Amino acid sequence: MELKSDNIQDRPEQQQQQMQQQQQEQQEQQHFHVLAVDDSVIDRKLLEKLLKVSSYQVTCVDSGDKALEYLGLLNNLDCHSTTSSSSSSSSSSSSSCSQSSQQEGLKVNLIMTDFCMPGMSGYDLLKRVKGSSWKDVPVVVMSSENVPSRISMCLEGGAEEFLLKPLQLSDLDKIQAYLVKSLDHSCTNMDKDLIGDNNDNDDNSNNNYSEDSNNDNGNSNNSNNNFSKRKAISSEATERRPKMKGVAVIV
Amino acid sequence: MDVVKLQKQLVDYRASLYHEAFLDEQFTQLQELQDENNPDFVVEVVSLFFEDSERLLNELAKALEQQSIDFKRVDAHVHQLKGSSSSIGAQRVQKVCITFRNYCEEQNVEGCLKCLQQVKHEYSLVKTKLETMFKLQQQILAAGGSIPM
Questions:
Q1: Chain B residues near residue A118 by CB distance under 8 angstroms
Q2: Is the pLDDT reported for residue A236 higher than 50?
Q3: Which of A181, A234, B91, B107 is deepest in the core (most CB within 10 A)?
Q4: Are A64 and A120 a contacting pair, CB within 8 Å?
Q5: How many domains does chain B have?
Q6: In b/e form, how buried is each residue of A140-154, taking b as 16+ CB within 10 angstroms?
Q7: Which tens digits make up the pLDDT trace of B105-140?
Q8: Distance, in angstroms, between A44 CA and closest chain B CA?
Q9: For chain A, which domains are there?
């Protein structure tokens, strides 16, 4: 990264062009990736369009199970977790995970899920995600029905937002705020991973375990803290918004 | 045919669909999402809606023909139809679905059968209207004009 800071103009033109192209490609790759879950083909198409128009990358799946599969969380296996208590279970999970090549470098910045789905509901999916190594990914729940008890249940379950269908472009402004927040999380995780790579397995699991226990202690305060955090962050995001799309981000 | 005349026809026809509540502002949202990269977006979504609705109406007819009606199943289908009609802005279809769901909750067979007829009727009306509108659009494009917003 230091190379690119000052002397681009001094370098030969070809190299300049190459570097600019690389920067551009990196910027494109840095677009937020949203996992959209909805059993309705029409709503999937609509959501995909809304997100693409807003410059997000989208992956659509039609059920909670497919979402879990995509995230590597099927069958209660957590392919991203290094907090397995017994080494034997981690080795068995890693053998089944090596078959799903999606896992490597998989980046999901936001999950948007319908509430009412046959089989696993959006709420069930929310709880599964929040109980996994993907717990820091913001989850937004959508529903065509305005049921206050449902809304508070989802928010208490860890959802960032509850959106009423049908969705409109204006709803996506709210989502931008959560993506900025998740950026901070994913940067931190990447740093942790970088540190983890240099250690052997035992040290790695120890680091993560202590992280998790800290999080657990914080959980009871979370719902209170989140409200004030949410407001603070959304005002920051509003200021940043004009610059958002051009930002090159390391995820 | 005169492009300007066609364009006026389209604008008036579209306005009438909103005025008569066949369509609501959600349909406008769909149109706003369409761009040069995906110029058939609205037609694609609406076609999906037609396919999906016809499937659901068939399922509903079957479910209501049963000796012992499974109202939960009927309600699930109506819920889907309500959702998809809402997503494309087919307001009159959506409204009938709301009434339909109430009858399901009451396990009122007569009410449900009546609503099934009503929703079939409203669906076929909006389908015809949308197809007419798309034809007008095609005519304008074929005559070298552009679709007025």
A1: 76
A2: no
A3: B91
A4: yes
A5: 1
A6: bbbbbeeeeebbebb
A7: 999 999 999 999 999 999 999 999 999 999 999 999
A8: 10
A9: 30-74+105-185 (3.40.50.2300)
